[in-house]
Amino acid sequence: MTENIESVKQVKGTMPKAIKMAKQMDDDFGQGVASFYKAIWKDREDGLSMKNKHLMVFAVACSRNNTNSAKKILVKLKNHGATRTEVLDAMMMAAWTGGIQNFTDISSDILPEMELIGF
């Protein structure tokens, strides 16, 4: 079981605080959170690159005004070869998004359409 938690370091690059805290609460909960992280951050054939994943979470952090997270992600972006222009584009996308209401409005139309198209 501990291997699952420790293997997140290889996938994510660091041990997320959420996993440490979840494990302190309950070992099974810690394992579940670790599995969640691994599923999101693992390399998948034809999936997003680590750079693109980090650009996405950077844009989300910026759109939520989460400065601490955005700063940490900037380091990851640098390590994954993101350019200044890519980071600026992500920041502009964050400025464009309207938050959760925008997501709710769009997702109710987009998710069924994606299924129709075959995604």
From TrEMBL:
InterPro entries, per the entry = AhpD-like, CMD-like
Q: Name one GO molecular function term.
A: peroxiredoxin activity
Query: Where is the Carboxymuconolactone decarboxylase-like domain positioned along the sequence?
Result: 28-103
Question: What Pfam families does its record include?
Answer: CMD (PF02627)
The protein's name in its UniProt record: Carboxymuconolactone decarboxylase-domain protein
Which species is the source of this protein? Answer: Methanococcoides burtonii (strain DSM 6242 / NBRC 107633 / OCM 468 / ACE-M)
